[in-house]
Amino acid sequence: MSKIIGIDLGTTNSLAAVWQDGKSVLIPNALGEYLTPSVVSVDARGTVYVGKSAKERLATHPNETASVFKRFMGTSKKYQLGKQTFLPEELSALVLKKLKEDAERFLGEEVEEAIISVPAYFNDMARNATKRAGLIAGWKVERIINEPSAAALACQNVKQVEEATMMVFDFGGGTLDVSLVDCFDNVIEILAISGDNRLGGQDFDDMIAEYFLKEQKVDVSKLDPETIGVVRMCAEQCKRALTESQTAQMTVKCPQINATMEISRKDVVNFCARIFERMGKPIRQVMADGHISVEEISDVVLVGGSCKMPLVQQYLAHVLKRNDIETIDPDHVIALGCGVCAGIKERNEQVKDMLLTDICPFSLGIGVHDNANSGELRMSYMIERNSALPISKQHTFFPHEDYQTLVTLSIYQGESLYAADNLELGKLEIEIPPRLSVQMPICVRFTYDINGILEVEVDIPATKEHKQMVIVNKDLSMTEEQIQAKLREFEKIKISPAKDEKNQYIMDWGSRLYMQCTGELQQEIGRKLEYFRYEVRRDNRSLKRVQKYMMVYLGVVEGMVNQFIKLSENDWKDGSWYQEETEEETQEKREIEDEFRTWEKENYDDSDTD
Ligand code: ADP
Ligand code: MG
Question: Taking the model in full, what pTM does it have?
Answer without folding.
Answer: 0.69
